[in-house]
Amino acid sequence: MLATLIPSAGLGILSFQQNETMINENVTRELRAMSNYAGREADLWVKEQILVARDLSTSISTSKILIEGLSIESQTQKTELAAQQRALEFYLKSVYRRLENVLELTVVDVEGEIIASNVASPFSVKLSQSWPEDASIQGDILNSPQWSKDYATAVFSVSVPILSIDDYILGALIVTFDMRDIQSSLKDKAKSPPGEVLLLDQAGNIMLTSAIGIPGANKSVSFDTDTMKRLQDNPGKYEIFLGPLQEKVVGLAYVSEKPSVTIIALRNYESIYSTWEQQRDLFAGLVGIMIFIVAAIAFRMSHAIVAPLQKLISATERIVKGDLNVELNNSQDDEIGQLTQRFNQMTDKLRQNQLEINAASAAMQKKNQLLETLSVTDSLTGLYNRNKLNVILSDQLARYGRNKRPFAVLMIDVDYFKSLNDNLGHVAGDEVIAAVAKKISQSIRNVDFAARYGGDEFIVILTETSVNEAEKTAERIRMQVADVHCSSLNKMLSVTLSIGIIQSEPEDISLTMLLSRVDSALYQAKHAGRNQVYCVTPKSRVKQQQHS
Ligand SMILES: Nc1nc2c(ncn2[C@@H]2O[C@H](COP(=O)(O)OP(=O)(O)OP(=O)(O)O)[C@@H](O)[C@H]2O)c(=O)[nH]1
Questions:
Q1: How confident is the model at residue 540 (pLDDT cuts 50, 70, 90)?
Q2: How much is the pLDDT for 221?
Q3: pTM for this model (two decimals)
Q4: Is 109 in the pocket of ligand 1 (CB under 6 A)?
Q5: Which residue, of 121, 271, 302, 346, has the fewest CB within 10 Å?
Q6: What's the DSSP call for residue 145?
Q7: Mutation pick for ligand 1 pocket among 456, 498, 534 (CB with most ligand atoms within 8 Å)
Q8: Contacts 24+ apart (CB under 8 A), 321-326
Q9: pLDDT, tens digit (0-9, with 9 covering 90-100), for 77-123
Q10: Is the pLDDT of residue 246 over 60?
Q11: Residues 6 or more apart whose Cβ sits within 8 Å of residue 393
């Protein structure tokens, strides 16, 4: 969805930007056309009014009353001056009545003093002191259009020099025009694009507008100074600002030198951009809805797929580490739910298998222990067998090599066992062998070892024991077997033992050597008459004890 949404949204935004640029360009073109048209019309009107003023000046210049009025100079002629002024005013009033858009006709002398006017208080038109020189160079003097509070309208004045017959400047005729005359010409009625035109004076007052109602009937409206300056500094450049009725407008300025006015063409912002903005907002809304849907789907997928998968992954990691006590909650019916269910079944099975393996392992361990015991044990006596004896003796020899603490070895043989076997039978013989083994086991320490060497022969290893100490143990064993109960015969048997004892010595470099020496000791005990202990003391000192 994102793959289609992102390019679509990008294209949409690009398209809206292009549309906005096109609208801006079209509006700018239309507003420029409107302002240029108004500028041309104002220029034409001004030129027409100058011609009118010149005509008036020409016709008035020929008037005898005017010439006489302007020619009165001396103090003595003051009385005559007043009469001439009245006559001149009367004359100007009669001319004024024939003109439609003229507000004032005022005659000033060469020093700018008002000589006569058609109105009692003429619109104050200030002429500079050097106006006669200016007039002789440039002819007519144009005053900048401005808003007149007195007339509640925009006014424009032209000062036309009045010349004597010999071309001396006698004074000037100042004609003040009502600019409302051009209001209807500010816009081309037939071809003008939508929008209005404002005519501003130098002070920023709105003098005229193409729209009825701006400004009010009896007052001007000041245009925002900052906005006006910005527009004047960038003539023909599109700006967005607050219009005269404080509404948002789009407009641009046309600055005219003659007459000195600023023309602003403007158009209501809403009328231009409302449709575009509605479409843009609709598009943004749709994109927003799409993003919300995508986000919702992503959230749902994350909730329904990613989160359960993460749980499965962490559960699997626990299993990998050996923890099988894993159970996942499952509330979904979809594929993820099925996967979770199978996962739980799998861990159940693993737990069962683990229990079975543990049980089998324990049984196996038990059997191994038994086998190990059997492998080192003599089945008749329960003592160590010959193989194990060899291992123990090798170990003891190695230990002796390291710590030099001697161990004692006893070789024990039942006297006349063959006769006992022959007379009482093998079963009784076995019982005697087992009984002797039991007595031996009971007579030695936990750290000592007893093994059946073969037939009726036994080997006892007394760790870290000297011959002297071993002799005591041997005697104790010999005494123990004096009376052996034979259960198969249900009677007591008197058994005697011959015992040979040696102590490990540095010369015992092998088992054979060691066993050979103890075997010799046993032989000595047998040879000496049996039922006795024969000790081989270290350094071949033989101590023999004989007991009856
Ligand atoms: N009942 C029984 N007899 C055995 C067993 N192993 C060996 N024998 C017998 O033990 C006897 C061993 O006799 P010897 O030690 O050689 O001779 P002896 O009669 O004891 O004479 P001395 O040792 O010189 O006193 C033999 O007759 C063997 O057949 C066994 O496991 N059970």
A1: very low
A2: 67
A3: 0.54
A4: no
A5: 121
A6: P
A7: 456
A8: 324/350, 324/351, 324/354, 325/351
A9: 566 667 777 888 888 898 888 888 899 999 888 888 888 888 888 87
A10: yes
A11: 409, 461, 511, 514, 515
Q: Report the alpha-carbon angle 223-224-228, nearest 5.
A: 85
Q: Is 150 helix (H, G, I), strand (E, B) or coil?
A: coil
Of 125-129, 140-144, 433-437, least confident by mean pLDDT is 125-129
State the ipTM, two decimals.
0.97
Average pLDDT over residues 306-335: 87
Q: What contacts 24+ positions apart, CB below 8 Å, involve 245-254?
A: 245/214, 250/27, 250/31, 251/31, 252/28, 252/31, 252/32, 252/35, 253/35, 253/228, 254/32, 254/35, 254/36, 254/38, 254/39
Cβ atoms within 10 Å of 444's Cβ, excluding its own: 19
- Give dist(CA 110, CA 167) in Å, integer: 13
Task: Tell me the three state secondary structure of residue 267.
Answer: strand
Query: Atom 31 of ligand 1 has which residue's CA nearest to it?
Result: 455
For atom 18 of ligand 1, which residue has the closest CA? Answer: 416
Q: Which of 378, 381, 420, 421 to mutate to test the pocket of ligand 1 (most atoms within 8 A of CB)?
A: 421
Residue entry with tokens 């005229």: 208
Of 379, 386, 414, 418, the residue with max ligand 1 atoms within 8 A of its CB, to mutate for a pocket test, comes to: 418
Contacts of 491 (CB under 8 A, 6+ apart): 485
Work out the burial of residue 53: count CB atoms within 10 Å of its CB; fewer than 13 is exposed, 13-18 middle, 19 or more buried.
Answer: buried
Say what the pLDDT of residue 482 is: 86
The pLDDT of residue 223 is 77
Q: Is 204 left (phi over 0), alpha (psi -120 to 50) or beta?
A: left
Tokens, residue 110: 């060469």
The closest residue, in CA terms, to atom 7 on ligand 1 is 455
According to the model, what pLDDT value does residue 546 have? 41
Nearest alpha carbon, ligand 1 atom 32: 430
For the chain, domains (ranges, CATH) are 28-145+156-177 (3.30.450.20), 386-544 (3.30.70.270)
471-481, pLDDT tens digit by residue?
999 999 999 99
- The answer to whether residue 547 scores a pLDDT higher than 50 is no
Residue 131 CB: number of other CB atoms within 10 A?
A: 19
Q: How far apart are CA 61 and CA 122, in angstroms?
A: 20
Beta strand extents in 298-439 (DSSP E only) = 408-414
- Nearest ligand 1 atom to alpha carbon 414: 20
Ligand 1 centroid distance, CA of 177 (Å): 165
Mean pLDDT score of the chain: 86
